[in-house]
Design a protein that fits this description.
The complex is a heterotrimer of chains A (942), B (290) and C (249). By secondary structure, chain A is of the alpha/beta class. Chain A contains 26 helices and 37 strands. A seven-stranded mixed beta sheet of chain A has the order 5-4-25-24-23-6-7, covered by helices on one side. A six-stranded mixed beta sheet of chain A has the order 32-34-33-36-31-35. Chain A has a four-stranded parallel beta sheet with strand order 11-10-9-21, sandwiched between helices. In chain A, helix 6 runs parallel beside helix 15 and helix 9 crosses helix 13. The two termini of chain A are 34 Å apart. Chain B is an all-alpha fold and 290 residues long. Chain B has ten helices and one strand; from the N terminus they run H-H-H-H-H-H-H-E-H-H-H. In chain B, helix 1 crosses helix 5 and helix 4 crosses helix 5. Chain B starts with a helix and ends in a 13-residue tail after the last helix. The model of chain B has no long low-confidence stretch (mean pLDDT 94). Chain C is α+β, with helices and mostly antiparallel strands and 249 residues long. Chain C has two domains: 198 residues, Alpha-Beta Plaits (2-Layer Sandwich); 25 residues, no CATH class. Chain C has a three-stranded mixed beta sheet with strand order 10-1-11, with helices on one face. In chain C, a hairpin with a 6-residue loop joins strand 4 and strand 5. Chain C starts with 11 loop residues before the first strand and ends with a helix. Classes of the chains: A alpha/beta (942), B mainly alpha (290), C alpha+beta (249). At the B-C interface, helix 3, helix 7, strand 1 and helix 8 of B face strand 3, strand 4, strand 5, helix 2 and helix 3 of C. The complex binds ligand MGD (2 copies), iron/sulfur cluster (5 copies) and molybdenum atom. One iron/sulfur cluster binds next to helix 3 of chain C.
């Protein structure tokens, strides 16, 4: 008979239509092509033209169809009918919901706006939500940055006007050595993977510094399985070696950093450690040519790195001098840090050699002339092709701010920031701390707040303290406890509100944050605080309003639920005013738009805020005649202007001669243009401005032209961060605003203007002899926090999470496959399944983050493995450190920024008989949306 | 491999039934009339019942007829043809015995041949699979044939030859187990060849692709504890061989004979359960399970 | 028809780079999405929101730990789908002819309307590349996206498998492995592409690029030590160090 085969239709119809929008299965914001069949979502793939993902899509993005159709979607506004935490609700109309909300909020605004705490979690519309909060007049607004990675963001901005995170990226196309610190996945999920792919394709080298060798670290050519919390020391040892060998870019340092800036060296002076400045407040340097003091930015100046300046009996030394003194000290020699870091000295040296070799022996040149801010013309761009990226592994420690600073300083010493092959900013960055707003907290009943809530303090005078010195904000951000808390401290809101410290609030209004579960430390405690009642039987936190799109654990704890749409059903704005989608080569912003209409009684949260704002008569939300200003969020996106000519969206604005990008008037058809263009807008940086952005005239002019700023603003990298020194000076007793006594010593020690390392604070509060093991979490690439578990496809990949143990602990305790362990911290206990992993730091255990679920949440069956075998590490972590006998409860966060120190956790472990379920076990909650079906045969077309 | 009851029942009972039909086909003087009817009925019940049971395990039993098309390459298809050939020839042969008191010897011989061929083709479905090293040997076919013929002999009342065949089958079974235990290691397929990573070092499965189960794990990655398996082998051998032999060596009684037969069948069922349960598919390597 | 073609005109397949795969599962889900909506019956899921969820997938990512004799353990993410074997045992065992290998490109497919769901082909496949769909009762396997790679309704650049198109780290490559000049063949030649379970005699078309040698910086290299030679043997204060450093550059 031989071979016969059927005829196949090789060109079946793919879909009726492709609608292009922006993914929101995580904060990476890739462009997606949504294939529509019969009006329904049939298939989602990456948009090839999109600047972020260029066609690729991650697992979560591809599984968007399952999220969009998840049975856990909320269906209508909900009013709580059972006790808090029970999950018992009744569906109500939007009119009733808004009436309730207005009824609660209106009196607050008129009498005490601070009694509303509005915190917005994983918000991608912070410029809008903060605008709303500012107009309401409460000082109590922030998003999730404080518990996420403010150390990284703040250290970057204070040091060099931008950070890794989503503010910059390695020069993937040119780098020859890439070093990755403490990253499992990150926000730039697809770009990092694409970048690693490019590096691998070229055969360039990747070094992964991480106690755990999975994912990106698994493909790293070299692995440094560092002891958690010690990266700062490791980095400073690299700095030590490089300085000692003179392998630093002195020319770069002299030109573009404050290394030559002169610092007051008189210990008795109240200005000790501050910069020598001219009358205009410009830091001064010595000019190598004239030998005279000059402002750093004087055209033609050649700053001298070595010259000191003596004046009125005070010696002023350049920053470089202070750095050399500090880091050449044998304290930082590899031999002296090796044991603490768990990295052999030889390996530290070997890595230093590799960095030096690639940076200086393999330097690259790009034939591209450019002109710097001092007017000097350069005919080439010189690259030091060593690049770095880092995230929460170094930032989510209580020494994280200084560690992130240390890494930035290392990069700068190499001259590899904003040079080819190094690290590149994404517009609107670079933007130095001084160009950002300062925090504002002045409350006037019935009036808006006096300015933006969040910002970058320059000294004690900028702290958010009331007249009596007590914190102005409910989260105690910008106080002596953590003066530079640039993102607020969402993780402290519930516990402070519960304690009435610094004051009581009335309504807690939250959006998109699963605070009664995976985004809180001390999860069990938080549940108690949310349900605790006072002597009158009233809830201690009187009212809770929450907006979620799904039946999360948090829903059960709210009194009023404002159900959001899914990401395919609403307008959204990924704006240059807040966290845009720019790449190093281009400024870009994007939208989401309803590619399908909701089939439930739900509404986009931002649109609801437009309504609520109008009903509350908030100035930004009503017109002069008192009517509603923005019909919905789409209307706001089109018509709102922050500054004349600058709106939420920069694309297709109305210019003098037709449509233009950047600055321009309102264009009624702007959203149509976005949709026609695939949902995004981008504007390319001119070739001359592609590198050296902070000092590059071409870049600065372009940035002004498209409205990133109003005048060129070149600046120097701050190896030495003077504002930190100002807090130290206050702690030393100078100045009007003085810290409380108990904080003086800590401020002096930790707010060092040059990077330092100190052990994670938890080490000083728990007994490291008893709790010898470090415990970490990592994000799984195929799951986004708690959202992923409602996804029928993704939950098959990560339906439960074992605790991974290194070989040493595995053997020491005689564990076998299928065993369980009791894991104890100073704060709590969990009993969980264990598994063995060899490629792991020998004193570290870890698990996947946020796989564990509460029974009854997410429309899952109560027997779901997420709820029976899955678990949260959060039960072991407290927002406060254990008492130390000094009568104080120190918070478990970075003393500089208040960043939650998730990864400082220390535990002990023992083998126990397998229980029926992972412990602690919580009561189930009633699902407000029922349960999902028994089988899926998903296909929308025929 | 997952010991699916339908397949265990199918292969055991059809083997037995075909064994009986084989003996009826080659009998020097086959029974006729009602006696023949009884024998043939039992044979068909077992053989056809077994075949029907095997369709329970199909995802699309209504399309079972399509299985006849690929006799050129597929042992399952060949089995289907052989089964039909065996049942049809033996049917005609039986018809003549029951109703016409006539034994058409040639037809009987052809039928018997197809009975054995059916058992053989069944065995080849397993024996051909390189992916299951324990099965992948000619001994598998010999074992299937031996058990079928021995069981058939018992069922057809051939005590003496039955005893001999029982002993032979038992011996083959023992050898098959013995050799089978080493076949996976000898197959050359291991974690290193499966992943190609052996040149770097010792390979260990870390995270599986999915935390729950799937078709592959359910179907192909079944594990029995070694201790448990040993015990079952003894039980199987005892039931399949020892007990029937003892019972048959006792002075003949119908009860004894029936008990011997039942014991044998039970023993074969246990052996067949082990046949699947102990068989390791190389895909288990990918899951670090073997 | 379950006879294998004498030979195929092309040998389309995938080349998977184990040095680059970060184990993100993107290819798993894009495959699930595409193949639920396209070729044949949807890939079903059982108990999708319950205690024991499972479902049909055509591509899965394993991960292995490898312990070399020297140096730390390594972790390798390991994608696995049908390897479109030249001597595909899954085809010859099929009793119905549902399983076949295409003459023009060597793609191994299941004609679902002929499949009786006997499972034999899955038994015959050493790689676990076939999964029976529980809801539909038919065998499912990677189609090499045969309904994409020639699809005239897709833009030319999209005529590649869904998993290849989506792979963020570019660890999956698609092409004709029968043509020694093709990009994939060159890649295989350069990087020493390997077969899985060669002893099974299936002659897989898909190839795996082995991980590059790791942890090379553990080895002492005196040769490079001069790079870190101190600027000044005994740095006499900052200025001494700085002078020397400036000289050096
Ligand atoms: N142990 C441990 N805990 C951690 C971390 C850790 O590393 N280890 N990481 C911390 C960090 S960095 C973060 S950022 C937090 C994250 O924690 P969360 O901010 O709580 O993040 P999610 O779990 O994503 O929850 C966000 C909520 O948004 C809801 N949601 C999803 N889509 C929409 C939508 O379209 N509209 C609305 N209105 N709601 C929606 C979800 O249903 C969910 O309830 O976790 C923190 N917790
Ligand atoms: N798929 C997916 N992507 C996400 C998210 C998600 O939930 N899922 N969440 C998003 C959010 S909100 C955030 S904040 C980012 C966070 O992105 P990441 O920063 O990648 O966050 P984590 O997964 O917490 O990874 C922390 C890493 O640091 C390592 N680590 C811990 N302590 C140390 C240490 O002391 N030193 C070093 N060197 N390493 C250490 C851990 O092993 C882990 O690999 O990811 C974003 N992207
Ligand atoms: S990384 Fe994945 S989930 Fe995040 S936006 Fe991109 S495609 Fe969506
Ligand atoms: S991998 Fe398996 S299913 Fe694919 S052709 Fe080879 S044997 Fe057949
Ligand atoms: S399951 Fe289907 S494709 Fe596989 S062998 Fe049986 S009939 Fe053929
Ligand atoms: S080629 Fe197509 S069917 Fe095969 S694994 Fe990739 S996406 Fe799935
Ligand atoms: S998409 Fe690429 S990197 Fe991700 S698991 Fe698949 S092959 Fe690996
Ligand atoms: Mo985060």
């Amino acid at each position: 008979m031989g071979h016969v085969q059927p005829d196949l239709n090789l060109s079946p119809k793919v879909s009726d239509e492709v609608r292009k929008t922006t993914c929101y299965m995580c904060a990476c914001r890739c462009g997606i092509d949504v294939h529509i069949k019969d009006g329904k979502v049939a298939y989602i793939e990456g948009n090839r033209d999109h600047p972020v993902n260029k066609g690729v899509l991650c697992a979560k993005g591809s599984a968007g169809i399952m999220q969009h159709n998840a049975p856990s979607r909320l269906r209508a506004p909900l009013k709580r009918v059972g006790p808090r935490g029970s999950g018992e609700f009744e569906e109500i109309s939007w009119d009733e919901a808004l009436e309730i909300a207005t009824g609660w909020l209106k009196p607050l605004r008129d009498e005490a706006p601070e009694k509303l705490a509005f915190f917005t979690g994983r918000d991608q519309s912070q410029s809008f939500t903060s605008f709303w909060a500012q107009n309401f007049g409460t000082p109590n607004y922030a998003a999730h940055g404080g518990f996420c990675s403010v150390n990284m963001a703040a250290a970057g901005i204070y040091t060099m006007g931008g950070a890794f995170w989503e503010f910059g990226q390695p020069d993937w196309d040119h780098t020859k050595l890439f070093m990755l610190f403490g990253v499992a996945e990150d926000h730039d999920s697809n770009p990092i993977k694409m970048g690693l792919g490019k590096i691998k394709e070229r055969g360039a080298k990747v070094i992964g510094v991480n106690p755990i060798r999975t994912g990106y670290n698994a493909i790293a050519d070299d692995w440094v399985g560092i002891t958690p919390g010690t990266d700062g020391l490791f980095i400073l040892a690299l700095v030590h070696e490089l300085l000692k060998a003179g392998k630093i870019d002195l020319d770069y340092l002299a030109r573009y950093t404050n290394a030559p800036v002169l610092v007051n060296g008189d210990p008795k002076s109240p200005e000790h450690g501050l910069f020598l400045k001219d009358d205009n407040g410009k830091p001064l340097v010595m000019d190598r040519v004239t030998g005279k003091l000059t402002p750093f930015d004087q055209p033609g100046t050649k700053p001298d790195l070595s010259a000191s300046y003596r004046h009125a009996g005070i010696t002023h030394k350049p920053v470089m001098h202070l750095m050399a003194e500090r880091y050449l000290d044998p304290e930082y020699a590899p031999e002296n840090v090796a044991e603490t870091c768990g990295v052999p000295a030889a390996k530290i040296k070997r890595i230093a050699v590799e960095i030096a070799r690639v940076a200086f022996d393999e330097a690259i040149e790009i034939d591209q002339p450019w002109t710097d801010f001092r007017g000097e013309k350069h005919d080439k761009m010189i690259g030091r092709p060593v690049s770095f990226h880092a995230m929460r592994g170094i930032s989510a420690h209580s020494n994280g701010f200084q560690t992130c600073r240390a890494l930035h300083v290392l990069q700068i010493l190499l001259g590899s920031v904003e040079t080819p092959g190094g690290f590149r900013f994404k517009p609107p960055y670079p933007k130095p701390a001084t160009a950002h707003p300062k925090p504002h907290c002045k409350v006037t009943p019935g009036q808006p707040l006096d300015g933006p809530h969040l910002g970058f303090v320059q000294g004690p005078e900028d702290l958010c303290l009331k007249e009596d010195g007590t914190p102005a904000r409910i989260d105690k951000a910008f106080t002596w406890d953590n003066p530079m808390s640039a993102h607020g401290m969402m993780h402290m809101v519930i516990s402070n509100a519960h304690a009435g410290d610094p004051y009581k609030i009335d309504t807690l209004f939250m959006y998109m944050a699963n605070m009664s579960w995976n985004s809180s430390m001390n999860t069990g405690g938080v549940m108690n605080m949310l349900t605790d009642t006072d002597e009158n039987g009233e809830y201690v936190i009187p009212r809770i309003i929450y907006s979620d799109a799904y039946s999360s654990e948090m829903v059960a704890y709210a009194d009023l639920i404002l159900p959001d749409t899914t990401y395919l059903e609403r307008h959204d704005c990924i704006s240059l005013l807040d966290r845009p989608i720019c790449e190093a080569d281009a400024a870009a912003d994007a939208i989401r738009w309803p590619v399908v209409e909701p089939d439930r009684d739900v509404r986009g949260f931002q649109s609801v805020l437009c309504d609520l704002g109008a009903q509350l008569d908030l100035p930004g939300f009503v017109t002069e005649d008192g009517s509603q200003k923005y019909a919905d969020y789409a209307d706001y996106m089109t018509h709102h202007q922050r500054r004349p000519g600058i709106g939420p969206l920069a694309g297709w604005r109305m210019g003098e001669d037709g449509l233009t990008g950047g600055r321009g008037d309102v264009n009624e058809a702007q959203l149509d243009s976005y949709i026609a263009n695939g949902g995004f807008w981008s504007s390319h940086v001119p070739d001359e401005g592609l590198y050296y952005k902070p000092w590059n005239t071409a870049y600065q002019d372009w940035a002004v032209e498209i409205g990133l700023y109003d005048a060129p603003a070149p600046f120097l990298f701050q190896l030495y961060v003077e504002p930190m020194r100002k807090f130290q000076i206050a702690a030393e007793g100078h100045g009007e605003r003085q810290p409380p006594e108990h904080l003086r010593a800590r401020l002096k020690a930790t707010l060092d203007p040059l990077p330092i390392w100190y052990p994670p604070l938890e080490d000083g509060h728990v007994d490291p002899e008893e709790f010898t093991v470090h415990a970490l979490t990592q994000r799984p690439m195929a799951m986004y926090h708690s959202w992923g578990s409602q996804n029928a496809w993704l939950r098959q990949i990560h339906g439960r999470n074992p605790m991974y143990l290194p070989t040493k602990l595995w053997e020491q305790h005689g564990f076998k496959d299928g065993d369980w362990a009791l894991v104890t911290s100073a704060h709590g206990k969990i009993t969980v399944p264990v598994a063995h992993m060899a490629a792991l730091n020998e004193n570290t255990i870890w698990t996947w983050n946020a796989i564990g679920k509460r029974k009854g949440a997410w429309a899952l069956d109560k027997t779901a493995p997420e709820a029976t075998k899955g678990f949260l590490l959060n039960h072991l972590i407290h927002e406060l450190l254990p008492p130390k006998g000094d009568g104080l409860r120190w918070s478990n966060s970075d003393p500089v920024t208040g960043q939650a120190a998730w990864f400082d956790l220390r535990v002990k472990i023992e083998k126990v008989p397998a229980p029926d379920e992972a412990h602690p076990v919580h009561d189930d909650i009633t699902s407000p949306v029922g349960q999902g079906p028994d089988e899926l045969r998903w296909k929308v077309g025929t | 491999m997952h010991p699916a009851p339908s397949i265990i029942a199918f292969s055991t009972f059809s083997g037995l039934g075909l064994g009986l039909l084989f003996w009826l086909g080659v009998a020097s003087s086959a029974p006729t009339g009602w006696v023949a009817f009884a024998f043939f009925a039992i044979g068909y019940l077992l053989a056809v019942g077994g075949l029907v049971a095997s369709t329970f395990h199909l995802g699309r039993p209504e399309r079972a007829l399509k299985a006849f098309t690929q006799w050129q390459t597929s042992w399952l298809s060949r089995e289907a043809w052989c089964a039909v050939a065996a049942l049809v020839t033996m049917g005609v042969y039986g018809l003549f015995l029951v109703f016409f008191d006539t034994q058409i010897r040639l037809l009987g011989a052809i039928g018997a041949f197809f009975c054995l061929m059916t058992v053989y083709t069944t065995s080849m479905i397993y024996a051909q699979l390189k992916t299951v090293p324990r099965w992948n040997t000619v001994l598998t076919s010999i074992l299937f044939l031996a058990l079928s013929v021995a069981g058939g002999a018992l069922l057809s009342g051939r005590v003496a030859i039955g005893l001999v065949l029982l002993l032979i089958a038992g011996l083959i079974q023992l050898v098959w187990w013995q050799i089978g235990d080493k076949r996976f290691a000898k197959s050359g397929t291991d974690m290193k060849s499966a992943t190609g990573l052996g040149t770097i070092g010792e390979v260990r499965a870390f995270e599986p692709p999915h935390t729950g189960t799937n078709y592959l794990l359910n179907e192909m990655v079944y594990t029995v504890a070694r201790r448990h398996a040993r015990k079952l082998r003894l039980i199987s051998l005892f039931l399949m061989l020892l007990l029937p032999v003892v019972l048959l060596l006792l002075p003949f009684s119908h009860v004894g004979a029936v008990l011997a037969l039942l014991s044998h069948v039970a023993g074969v069922l246990v052996s067949r359960w082990l046949f699947f349960a102990e068989a390791e598919h190389v895909v288990g390597l990918y899951y670090g399970m073997r | 028809m379950t006879q294998l073609p004498e030979k195929t005109e092309r040998k389309l397949g995938l080349v998977i780079d184990l040095d680059t795969c970060v184990g993100c599962h993107a290819c798993v889900i894009s495959c699930k999405g595409w193949n639920s909506e396209n070729y044949g019956a949807p890939l079903s899921d059982q108990d999708p929101y319950g205690g024991d969820p499972s479902g049909t997938f055509l591509n899965r990512i394993h991960s292995y730990e490898v312990q070399p004799e020297e140096g730390p353990a390594q972790l390798i993410h390991f994608p696995k789908s049908c390897l479109h074997c030249e001597d595909a045992p899954c085809v010859t065992v099929c009793p119905t002819g549902a399983s076949y290998k295409r003459t023009e490109d060597g793609i191994v497919l299941v004609n679902e309307t002929d499949c009786i769901g006997c499972g034999l082909c899955a038994w015959a496949c050493p790689y676990g590349a076939r999964e029976m769909d529980k809801a539909e009762g038919v065998m499912k396997k990677c189609t090499l996206c045969v309904d994409r790679i020639y699809n005239e309704n897709l833009p030319e650049e999209d005529r590649e498998p869904a998993c290849v198109r989506t792979c963020p780290s570019n660890a999956r490559h698609f092409g004709d492995l029968g043509d020694p000049d093709s990009a994939v063949s060159q890649l295989v030649a350069e990087r020493g592409g390997m077969d899985l379970m060669p002893e099974q005699g299936t002659k897989p078309v898909n190839k795996y690029l082995p991980p590059r040698p790791k942890d090379q910086l553990n080895e002492e290299v005196d040769m490079l030590a001069p790079l870190l030679a101190p600027v000044a043997e005994e740095p006499k204060g900052f200025l001494g160090w700085l002078d020397k450093t400036l000289e050096k550059i």
